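Morning F.,

Quick status update on the modeling queue. The single chain you submitted on Monday has been processed. Sequence for confirmation:
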Amino acid sequence: MSTISIDRLSKSYGKCLAVDDVTIEIPAGSVFGLLGPNGAGKTTTFKCLLGLARATSGEVRFGGQPLTPPLFESIAYVPERSVLYEWMNGAEHLEMQRRTFARYDVARAKELMELFSLDPRKRVRAMSKGMRSALAVVMAFAIHPETLVLDEPTSGLDPVNQRAVLNLIIEAAAQGATVVLSSHQIGQVERAADHIAVLQDGKVILAGAVDDLKSDRKIVEGIFPSETIALDGLRRDSRIERLDQSGRILRLTITADGGGLAETLSQMGAQSVRIVDLNLEDIFLNAVSPNMQTADVVEAR
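Structure tokens below.
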């Protein structure tokens, strides 16, 4: 179990700067969610982390040490795109893992294959996208890794098997593994992750413990009789960080005094008002588009 330190990491492909001066500290034994829009640099960061792409500048350290071949014995990687061999079946992939990793656990692999209802005789070319994802997950967890790097590990899986993967992640972290997870399913990341970083255009725009990021903001939500809402002075209220309207629903992301703004919405004619905690999706959207306001809001002005 070791802390992963990414220090001023940059990666260019020609004139394209895919990762730009990224610094992240991933605590040992944590589940760390790496979030971002498409093209934000998440997969490139993972590749540089594992030495699959050579960084233009910066460095990565595992427990204070650079990545060396012996460390790969304790690292598992599930890439975003399948790298399974089309002509091999599940059993052959697992045999390859057994011969490659001293930590490979035959009984654990069998248990996981049964968990995901995978037929070890089926060749990859005949597998669905979800089956391929599940097999990659089985191969990763069967070696009892100390570090897991998972790039969209639930892609193509049904909700039951998505939940199974999340349970495996949470269990691994509880047993001391460090998990770095990327997923467009933000609800999945919220269930598993205790720390996150958000990338946009190759840069870290937000990072921290999930509980800390949630603690200083609230959502005030009001439902109005019609979609025409007189916003009055809400736009200029310094307590409001973000304002969104969807039909008759007005949502205010606030930094303080939720009760006062709830009363304001009631006085404006809201039929129902409630104050709720931010979820991870709210935090993500506030980070990647902090000043975004819907077309409905603009028209209502």
